[in-house]
Amino acid sequence: VLATWRLYLFTVKVPTKVEVTFNFLEIRAMNTYSEHQVVIDTDKTTYSFRLQTQDQLDHMVGHINYALSRVFNNSIYAHQRAVVCLEFSVLLSGTSALTDSSALFPSSPSGGFSETYAALCDYNGIGCKEEVQWDVDTIYHSQDNREFNLLDFSHLDSSRDLAVIVASIAYNTWFTKLYCKDMRIGSEVVDQVLHTVSKSNSLEELTLENAGLKS
Fold it and tell me: Which of 90, 68, 63 is nearest to 8 (CA)?
């Protein structure tokens, strides 16, 4: 079963249970072969799937590629080091067909922030905060606010939540500024700030003032 950001493989036994599952961001390489076969290398292991028809194979590969293109702002074939300590490269051979998965991936404002954020939450095993998505898609977007202020999300439970939010900006083209003042941020958040600054093509200004950084 192909979900929005994840593949599930169920047993045929009763009761049915999930035998294999992985987030698409775990993929390191994906290659197609003859007889409708696709081999997917992930962080942990390699999976080989043989589909019944070429259409099924095209649908599977197209769905995964489209999902990753939403996370990386449509840089579908770019070899990149992705967010949250993740290296990502999709090597696609044997087919170039992409299916239309727009029903599962509705276009969101603010450079697709909500889609990237949701995918990273799933990858990191934390709950996706709808309030975060709403704030960005509604308030930031309606005000044409391109400055992402970490203070707006200081109420979140853990620094990991904030780190994933920062990581979501790395390939975002909407935000041009990242701002944090009078708010202490942990090392995990700092690491993601550094990663985001190094990878973003859109960020023009970074402000970290009285953020608890050690000199």
Answer: 63
Q: How many CB atoms lie within 10 A of CB 5?
A: 23
pLDDT digits (tens, 9 = 90+) for 100-159: 444 444 556 788 899 999 999 999 999 999 999 999 999 999 999 999 999 999 988 788
Q: Is 50 helix (H, G, I), strand (E, B) or coil?
A: strand
Q: Label the pairing between strands 205-209 and 177-181.
A: parallel
| Residues 6 or more apart whose Cβ sits within 8 Å of residue 189 | 150, 159, 162, 163, 166
Q: How far apart are CA 111 and CA 175, in angstroms?
A: 8
Asked if 109 contacts 137 with a C-beta cutoff of 8 angstroms, the reply is yes
Segment (H or E) for 206: strand 205-209
C-alpha span between 195 and 28 (Å, rounded)? 19
Q: What is the pLDDT of residue 136?
A: 94
Please list the residues that pair with 80 across neighbouring strands: 88
Longest dimension (CA), the chain: 60
- Specify burial of residue 99 (Cβ count, 10 A radius: 0-12, 13-18, 19+): middle
Neighbours of 177 (CB within 10 A): 15
Residue 2 DSSP class: B
Q: Confirm if 21 and 3 have CB atoms less than 8 A apart.
A: no
Complete domains list, the chain, with CATH: 6-94 (2.30.29), 109-209 (no CATH)
Determine the distance from the C-alpha atom of residue 215 to the mean position of all C-alpha atoms in its chain, rounded to a whole number.
32
